[in-house]
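Key result, reporting period 2: structure in, sequence out.
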């Protein structure tokens, strides 16, 4: 998490003479100090994430996606898939998606939140988790599909990146500038 935020929001703003490894160390210390403070108050984390950070993130992500999709640098049909996706794209995509831990983290947070709302019966918790999971899967699909399109269309501007953090930094820097890139990076984590 710290590396992605650093790559997207801080690294593009470093000057030529700045040591990236020292800057990453300083950023990581500050980042994980904030994580520790928030972790010591677990009841407040969900409030901050749900009411403050997520809405800010979604607004900046929507601005980025809409701007990038309106101004594509290349057509999706002109982009050749990466080697791993030329055959077996569904299975590789499923594994890579699983590796993000979105579904598992959502399940864990969902169970905790539902229980904190006073639901104690395991079958009721399971029903609530299932219904909320089905409801949230629709926006998640929209977010993933649009970011995939945005990334694919950015291939006219940038080469394939080593990781998604670098790609997002390049795309957000191009369309949102440094300030927008930093806000997006902070809210991602």
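The corresponding designed sequence is given below.
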């Amino acid at each position: 998490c710290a590396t992605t935020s650093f790559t997207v929001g801080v690294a593009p703003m470093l000057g030529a003479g700045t040591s990236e490894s020292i800057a990453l160390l300083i950023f990581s210390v500050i980042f994980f100090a904030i994580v520790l403070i928030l972790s010591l108050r677990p009841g407040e984390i969900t409030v901050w994430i749900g009411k403050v950070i997520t809405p800010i993130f979604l607004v900046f992500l929507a601005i980025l996606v809409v701007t990038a999709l309106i101004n594509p640098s290349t057509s999706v049909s002109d982009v050749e898939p990466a080697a791993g996706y030329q055959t077996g794209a569904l299975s590789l995509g499923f594994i890579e998606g699983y590796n993000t831990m979105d579904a598992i983290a959502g399940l864990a947070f969902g169970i905790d939140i539902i229980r904190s709302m006073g639901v104690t019966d395991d079958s009721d918790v399971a029903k609530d988790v299932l219904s909320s999971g089905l409801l949230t899967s629709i926006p998640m699909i929209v977010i993933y599909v649009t970011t995939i399109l945005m990334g694919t269309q950015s291939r006219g501007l940038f080469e394939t990146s080593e990781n998604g953090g670098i790609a997002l930094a390049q795309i957000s820097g191009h369309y949102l500038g440094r300030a927008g890139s930093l806000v997006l990076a902070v809210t991602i984590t």
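Helices lie at 2-10, 20-39, 42-70, 83-86, 89-99, 102-116, 122-153, 164-188. The mean pLDDT is 83. This case is discussed further under Risks and Mitigation.
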